[in-house]
Structure formats: C-alpha cells, structure tokens
Specification:
Blueprint (H helix, E strand, L loop, with lengths): L1 H21 L7 H26 L9 H10 L1 H36 L1 H15 L3 H12 L3 H24 L4 H9 L4 H36 L8 H10 L3 H29 L11
Helix pairs in contact: 1-2, 3-11, 4-5, 4-7, 4-9, 4-11, 5-7, 6-7, 7-9, 9-11, 10-11
Length: about 280
C-alpha cells in the first residue's frame, strides 16, 4: 500500500508545482512551456507505476511503466524492424502518395466546377467508410506486404487533405482576387502568388490530421494480414500470448513516432506560414 501513498503524494506535489508554473513568468519562456507538459507526463507515469504495484495489478492486465521500458530495451532490434515495416514503408509512403494526390486533385477541383460538384460528395461518402471494412479488401487486392498498408493509408489521408486544400483555395478575399484580375494575372499566376499562399494554413491543417491517420491506418491494416514483422502484426501476436508488456512497448513506439511526425509537420508549417496570426509568438 505504500506504493499507492507515494504515488498520490507525488501527484499532489506535481499538481501544486504545475499550478504554480502555470501562473508564473517561467511558463512564458519556451523552456517553461515545455516543462509543464513534461511534468504532467512524468506524473502520469509515476502514478501509473505506484497504483499498479500498490494494488497488485497483474501484468497481463496492465504492466507497470518500468516493465514496459525494460521490454523496450530488451527488444530494441525487433521494435526497430516493426517500426521500419509499419511507419517507414507503409505509413510514410502512403502519406506522401495520398497527400500529394489530394493536393493535385484539389487544384483540379478548383479549376473545374464540374469536379467540385461531382467529386466532393463522393469523397465525403468514401471518407465515411469504416477502415475495418476497407482494409481487408485492400489487403486482398495489393497483397500482404507494405503496399496494401500504403493503400489503406492513401484512402485515409486523401480526403482530409483534399477537403482542407479545397477550402483553403477559396480562403482568399474577393477583393484580392479582383485586384489580381485587374492586374491581368492569369489563373496560374493568381494561384501561385495569391491563393496557394493563403491556403497554406488550411493545407497544413489537413497534413497534420493525416499524420495521425497514416500511422493508425497502417497498424490497423496489419491486423488483416502482413509478413511476420510490423507493429500491427506484433500487437496481435503478443495479445494472443498475453505479452502485454510488448504490446504496450509497441504502443509507446507508435505514440512517439506519431508525435514526432506531427511535430515535424508543425515545424515546417511554422516556417512556411510565419506570416499567419496563429504563428505569432507571445511576448
């Protein structure tokens, strides 16, 4: 029971510290803004460890974070191979293909009112299809290797990026477009110099949404067939053997990879859309 008491005491101390940091000048700095969520995350891990050990929760129900960390250290080569198969081959390739195709399709829709009236409703319908329904079909079409996982990712990321890009292309003000027409700008000149820069916040919004969808789609697709490697394959295999520490190790790797991928896209967004009000740094 001492573990539970220590965990709750640590939680109370960390809560008071976070409240103090949130109301202090320290949080205004970049290091301070990172310190608050970092302390919050450490608190969750400590409370998790204390409650699991103090209440005697079996490892097949919920392993403690130390057991998960030990499994990550022991199974590094396996986790790396699974990461390469799922993220690098399946999720990343499908992300690039799907987002690139969505961007080009959005420009075609913007150019053609016929496609805007005909394709967008179909896209909304396809986007509503459950991934667990289309993943087995795509696995049967493209095989059990990474190509089928990339196909699932393409389907998942295509329409969020498409819808956001189409909305972004229409975000420029009418007066700005009329001014470009007054200067004799062609469609492509207006697109490149006015409408695409104005659409970038919308485009990156879709790209950031797609980062999480890509990894989820690749992992779920592996549930329906894959080589003997990959995050989805490892999760299903270890669940069957009650190896919950390995399952949580795969989840931790996936969460870190997804967060890093999202952060990378957000960093590129900050460099590209530095002029947008959302990117202004508070003093």
């Amino acid at each position: 029971m001492i573990w539970v008491v220590l965990a709750l005491a640590f939680w109370a101390g960390a809560w008071a510290t976070n409240v103090w940091l949130s109301h202090s000048v320290v949080v205004q700095s970049r290091a301070g803004r990172l310190l608050v969520p970092a302390l919050f995350g450490v608190t969750i891990l400590v409370v998790w460890e204390g409650l699991v050990r103090g209440l005697g929760v079996p490892g097949v129900i919920l392993p403690p974070p130390t057991a998960i960390a030990a499994r990550i250290g022991a199974e590094g080569p396996t986790l790396w191979a699974d990461f390469r198969q799922t993220f690098v081959k399946g999720a990343l390739s499908g992300y690039v293909i799907g987002c690139g195709a969505a961007f080009l399709t959005a420009i075609a829709i913007d150019r053609s009112p016929f496609l805007q009236r005909g394709l967008l409703p179909v896209g909304n319908f396809v986007a509503a299809l459950p991934i667990v329904g289309i993943a087995p079909i795509l696995v049967m079409w493209f095989g059990f290797d990474w190509q089928s996982k990339a196909a699932v990712v393409v389907v998942m990321v295509f329409f969020p990026v498409l819808v956001n890009t189409v909305a972004g292309l229409a975000a420029s003000e009418r007066m700005q477009r009329d001014l470009m027409a007054t200067w004799g700008a062609s469609y492509w000149q207006s697109l490149l110099k006015l409408r695409l820069p104005a659409a970038m916040p919308f485009v990156f919004n879709g790209l950031k949404i797609a980062t999480t969808l890509a990894l989820i789609g690749a992992i779920v697709a592996e549930f329906f067939g894959s080589p003997i490697v990959g995050m989805g394959f490892r999760i299903t295999a270890e669940v069957g053997r009650l190896g919950l520490d390995m399952v949580w190790a795969e989840i931790a790797v996936a969460a870190l990879a997804g967060s890093a991928f999202y952060g990378l896209v957000a960093l590129v967004e900050k460099r590209v859309t530095f002029w947008h009000p959302s990117q202004r740094v508070r003093n």
